[in-house]
Amino acid sequence: MQFDISQRAQRLTSSAIREILKVTEDPSVISFAGGIPSPQTFPVGLMKEACARILDFAPHAALQYAPTEGYTPLREWIAERHGVTADRVLITTGSQQALDLLAKVLIDPGSRILVENPTYLGALQAFSLFEPILTPIECDGEGIVPGALTEETILGARFVYTMPNFQNPTGRRLPVSRRRQLVAAMKAANIVVIEDDPYGELDYSGEPLPTLLSMNPDGVVYLGSFSKIIAPGLRVGYAIAPMPLIKKLVQTKQASDLHTSGFAQRMVYEVLDTGFLDAHLSQIRALYMAQRGAMLASLASHCALSMSWNAPEGGMFLWARVPDSVDAVRLLEKSLAHENGSRVAFVPGAPFYAGKVDAHTLRLSFVTVPPARIEEGVAQLASTLAMLL
Amino acid sequence: MQFDISQRAQRLTSSAIREILKVTEDPSVISFAGGIPSPQTFPVGLMKEACARILDFAPHAALQYAPTEGYTPLREWIAERHGVTADRVLITTGSQQALDLLAKVLIDPGSRILVENPTYLGALQAFSLFEPILTPIECDGEGIVPGALTEETILGARFVYTMPNFQNPTGRRLPVSRRRQLVAAMKAANIVVIEDDPYGELDYSGEPLPTLLSMNPDGVVYLGSFSKIIAPGLRVGYAIAPMPLIKKLVQTKQASDLHTSGFAQRMVYEVLDTGFLDAHLSQIRALYMAQRGAMLASLASHCALSMSWNAPEGGMFLWARVPDSVDAVRLLEKSLAHENGSRVAFVPGAPFYAGKVDAHTLRLSFVTVPPARIEEGVAQLASTLAMLL
């Protein structure tokens, strides 16, 4: 049988990240590829208690169909944390679903949307299904360059998509002055800002910056997630949006999956309700800071002459660059082909670009591999790179 | 701020079902409206054990990011039950998500798709977001009329969407001869069949009919769900599709929510793996058969002169019709406005129609309300109807 596939689906291809994650299922690979939280941060004991409480005291409500908007106590918890009312909060099946819903509500075929360059690959995938025209905005090591937000560039765009805190893939953080400029420019041009913030709580600077949401609650859609601070396998995220948008997002979600697992939502809420989060976040931050330190130290001892990189103040990733003579995809292939020595995985930068590609960039995650293996992996990467130079 | 909403989202309106479900949150309402499983069928004890096992023996895997395709043992369980290979099985966030993914993969704006009339409202909502042209196929009390599948009607359609077992909303079942004719006609015209089968296991006839999938595995996409046989609040469903389609569905799902909650998938699998399902299904069937019997008996004693209805051999719903002088939406309003006597909810038939509407039809669910209250509700409905006649 011949299948008549939609135009949008014909354009879909397997993502590089996905293919790479398959290789890294082999535990002998040292993987700096995945944006995967360290499993030792999962609050397993609290979850066990949460499951027992839910099934003892509210089994029928937790296992029954539930309202599309989400579990009210969880929505209230989120609303309080962000200083908004709970009716602006929609629980989503991970942050990824919020991107899908926003695309459904805001993108017509041919709509122009503004993205950072490079930007989160999963957002490019979610948006591209709805056939927008992507306009990449010029970025530097601190994110969107305010001078690039010219009227010509932004006018008529449906939204700008940005990850101001410890961006995936670059790890960079948008300074507060640029945040204000971005929000003001978008407000003046009547363009919605989508602030994707999965890493905001993973701040190692001790000085978190104000959200874009706090700067213009009526013009910003904020996306949050419990994947990086509790556990990704529950698939619980959320969107905070102005009322006219939240209504459309709820209707769209109803058509997309009715609602997010009520059991998973209650697990998240029960765990949060123990008041453990602040202490838990301190532990996660300490762990990841140590791993970031190990990676920065290893890079300094092994790669100082052959690579450049940044030192992010939070999140999971740093962004590196190899010399112009080396393509990062080639480096990855070589790095995974080793027969002697460790195989090392990372994500080449190319698929994250929506505009001009820098093929010599790569994303290194420091959160999954313990410090001793970080050292081993970086040393191996340096020696593979040396062979290509 | 003005929001520039996509055309598809502008057309979205709140569904009648949804508004009605809000009213039925009040426990004093006798609700025949929801397609909501009886909570006494939820295997709470087995789930408690399942949660403990998962968190004792595989907490990190269950709580981590996981492959988009789904949890392998669950996919294998499903594959074995349907006589297919596991690589054809994709786990979805409820069946509803499978409708969304199929729409993404198969519908371009203006694509023609074939639907039963009336049909499942949630499918109409999922498909409509992708702006198809709906062609309703003529149906009678047994479902799609084979004679209506003329070349003129079906040619060039992207797919036909059908619920052959105990359809939502009508409760009707497609006879085996019609199944064969439908599958043959679609095969000849190279049109994909989407077989949505959430109620197939709720067969009270003792004689289940062969699936469309079994008649043409390379031309049928089968959608199944654990919502009606384990619990809807876990949001675990699945699609079985030919390989060229499954690959596109997986890519599309990755962009839509990465994967379905791995914890919820393992809960389903662990519960199934106890081997409880066959005995459990017998219990559910016995319970719902008794409730169906109570509703049929109540209708016969109170409504014989004012309504007609069918006697479905499975599922959750029966389909009724009031005289031409009464609009079912008006009856619902009246029925919920009572100050003396019980308020009774049901779903008027109108929103389920994709073509010609019969405004005098209504859907009655017999699974949520216990027999004694079924009698009370039907009696009250009959007296409300009498006032309008």
Structure description:
2 copies of one chain form a homodimer. Chain A is an alpha/beta fold and 389 residues long. Chain A has 2 domains: 7-42 and 278-388, Aspartate Aminotransferase, domain 1 (Alpha-Beta Complex); 64-273, 3-Layer(aba) Sandwich (Aspartate Aminotransferase, domain 2). In chain A, 42% of the residues lie in helices and 14% in strands. Chain A is built from 15 helices and 15 strands. Chain A has a 7-stranded mixed sheet, sandwiched between helices. In chain A, helix 6 (94-106) packs across helix 11 (243-257) and helix 13 packs parallel to helix 15 (371-388). The longest helix of chain A has 26 residues, at 277-302. The model of chain A has no long low-confidence stretch (mean pLDDT 94). At the A-B interface, helix 1, helix 3, helix 4, helix 6 and helix 7 of A face helix 1, helix 3, helix 4, helix 6 and helix 7 of B.
Q: What CATH architecture label of the largest domain in chain A applies?
A: 3-Layer(aba) Sandwich
Mean pLDDT of chain A: 94
SS field, number of helical segments of chain A: 15
What's the overall geometry of chain A?
Answer: globular
* pLDDT < 50 stretches of chain A: none
Helix and strand pattern of chain A? HHEHHHEHEHEEEHEHEHEEHHHEEHEEEH
Radius of gyration of chain A: 21 Å
| Chain pair with largest interface | A-B, 82 and 81 residues
Supply the CATH superfamily name of the largest domain in chain A: Type I PLP-dependent aspartate aminotransferase-like (Major domain)
Strand order of the largest sheet of chain A: 2-10-9-8-7-3-4
* Total strand segments of chain A: 15
- Assembly state here? homodimer
Helix content of chain A: 40-55%
